[in-house]
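Methods — Computational structure assignment.
A single polypeptide chain was analysed. Its primary sequence is given first, followed by the predicted tertiary structure written as structure tokens.
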Amino acid sequence: MHKPSPESQRVFAPDIFANQVAIVTGGGSGIGLATAFELLRLGAKVAICGRTAEKLEAAAAELGKVAGPDRVIAATCDIREAPQCEAFVQDVVGEWGQVDILVNNAGGQFPSPAQHITSNGFLAVVKNNLVGTFNMTREVANRSMIARKSGRIVNVIANIYRGFPGMAHTGAARAGVENLTMTLAVEWAQFGILVNAVAPGIIISSGTAQYPPQLLERGISQTPLKRAGTIDEVAASILFLASPAGQFITGTTLRIDGGQALWGHTWEIP
């Protein structure tokens, strides 16, 4: 059972997202699940998606304890495939009539020196992190936000503000998402759609659990605050950008990294 930190529960007014509908991709675990939990707790209806049915079913059961099953939708959706994004968003709009908030959290990569990444491996990561984000964003905008002249989109990227050795594929893809964020913020301002991003640094989550412990320890040692962040801290930042407090913020990226982008390194140069 996800247990949010007390700090994450003190910041926002009760029911601040009442009568709003949110989609969270990659909502079955980690940052996505924490974000979905907080959105529900604060009054929103939440639809989560991902590629693993078992994980989504467990997450939906957990979320349903917070707000009741009538405020939760969970469905498999591979964001790399545009038709699946279309079907998922269509189902959400058909059920709840609108989408007010989109959190593009789904993604994935694997650590590898660039010379060992195959073309197929590089393309798979770009499709997952960049193409998938565009697929879902375009669909939500076209099916709800543009017509309603309102919406908040928050993209979860990564710490891409220096070289990203060992992550050339995702570094390139997520840098693309940051530029997409800025471009759509300008294009869609006319529709009242705010588009922002968050860039987590070293965060203790199901995602970082797959990496070698020494890589995580090195990242923490090279973070000025000398600790890893939490999924609740990332979720709180996402909610801030989606809330009325963020109504004059668009096209920006909020770094949630304890100062990591400003100092240190994560990869030894031979």
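Note: The two ends are 43 Å apart (CA to CA).
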